Amino acid sequence: MNRFKKISVHAVFLGLSLFLHASFAQDAVKTNGVAESKIRNIDGVAAVVNTGFVTRKEIDYRIAALKKQGVKLPEDGSVRKAILDRLILEKIQLQNAEQEGIKVTNKELDKIIGDIAAKNRLSYAEFKAKVIASGSTFERYKQMLRDDVIVTRYREREIEAKVKISDAEIDNFIAERTRAMTAGGAPRSAPAAKGELEEIDVAQIFIPVDAGAEAGAQADVKKKADILLRDARGDVDFLQLGAMAAKENPKIKFQELGYRTPDRLPQLFYEAVRNTGSGQVANAVVKSPAGYHVLKVLDRRAAGAAPPHQQATAADAGSSTPQNIPITQTLSSHILLRSRAGLTDQDAERRLRGYRAQVRAKTADFAELAKKYSEDGSAANGGELGWMSPGDLVPEFEQAMNRLQIGEVSNPVKSEVGWHLIQVLDRREGQLTVEKQRQFARAAIRARKFEQAYQEWTRELRDNATVKILNVEDAASSAPR
Questions:
Q1: Could you tell me if 280 and 413 lie in one domain?
Q2: What are the tens digits of pLDDT across the range 273-297?
Q3: Of these four, 20, 40, 121, 451, which has the most CB atoms within 10 Å of its CB?
């Protein structure tokens, strides 16, 4: 069970960051029947989208927001095109959602804003003041938040219907992963001969980052990617590692790309794995405009060769039957100081180091300190979290916990939730049940299929829309308000 939910001080600006994503979509544009001379009479129109339009002021506003957050933008005009592409796609989705009757009432919107404020320990009025202080009007914030909720509901409804996962797919996934775990690694194909066309099976764990995220947030995402890269080099199933990370943070995606020739891999990916052998992880995290990618080469083979599991003998089939896998379970307690406005990382770390010093000096009991100071539901139970299996806790917490001896107290540990002080109480041998393996398998398959379905869906939306691009290169005559 996911014990910790991501609560960040940056959520204060949740609505403000909604428009900071830059999508580098392909330029598939249709012309419409309206004469260009008439369209240009509409002041500041950058693109006509079906019966609506995107203005240059909208592009300017989003660029201004990026600059306000200190993002260094390229000077070649690519940012304006990327933002326009994003706005066009948003406009199409909003138009379709309206036709489908998807709405967000004022009452719903106020409740959503109230929940955001409450999670950041602010009143509605205090949150409103924060939004205005950031440089936006509150009405603009509300409209963008409303649009984002509508688009999200529409997208989930449309794509969920396209994602189907059969029991056979889950069984095959578990069988392959079981073979890999019990045989010390996935079966390998024979390498391509010199000069022969090669296919590479690459898997990735992708951690997205907002284009307008502050430098500190960017650094945190990079640090998380580096931690995942380090863990991936260990004795761990790569896609299961991705499933564990995605379970805690649904924004993280993991997928197996399948066998592809070098020209069908993203250039960034191919350069990163060009000299990486089968079963090996890329030397470094790959940075793309969308975020950070941890890559692993699952297999390399001659183009057109049969997959290795098809080359296996029939006698191996029985060994792939899903079965419980032995695991180590840990009983631990923690003291949590949640991330929030007014509590700096330095203050949280200093406080937890103080508590640790008291426990080590035996002037205070860990459980009593947890009851008094921990900021989550476990406080009433002295911080005790119960017996946890691999993947039940956020990765940063779990990695620190696994390094502790029974009775030992950790140094302060930072996660997406806040700062933790951890004590291991006991360990025991347990089993990763077939049912839990099925949960991992379903999540892994769904992540791959959802991403594929989303890309196909957005291409269809753009192809079926009537779009005419105008005036995108020039900024609006007046500054965005």
A1: no
A2: 988 888 889 999 998 877 899 999 9
A3: 20
